[in-house]
Amino acid sequence: MNACTYVHGPLLSGTTERVCLIIGSFDGVITVHNYIMDRIMEKPDPNPNTTGEGRLNVERHKQVKILVPNSTAGMVIGKGGSYIQEIKEKTGAYVQISQKSREFNLLERCIVVAGKLFMMYW
Q1: Which CATH number fits domain 4-114: 3.40.50.880, 3.30.1370.10, 3.50.50.60, 3.20.20.210?
Q2: Which residues share a beta bridge with 68?
Q3: Which GO terms describe its molecular function (predicted)?
Q4: pLDDT average, residue stretch 75-102
């Protein structure tokens, strides 16, 4: 059950987010993910970012953002959004995938998964 974690220094292009890349076996990645979620719960951000509308994002600790390559986003979305809808129905979580960027030449799309705390653990 091995995994390697790498935190990318600069902000992700076009966002206020930093990237934590977890590489390893399935069990190792899940273990590291849950460890990170535990640390976030222990020490919430004292200066949370605001949303696009200027509101504080106080529920950030209940969100996971996953970057997927543009080339595989369709496999996550499904035809007409069918896979996203299935995930929502089976888990009760909020799931949203970003549109392709027109302003930046980004290679990834961001999937936001939000919900009750237990939904963020895998």
Answers
A1: 3.30.1370.10
A2: 109
A3: RNA binding
A4: 87
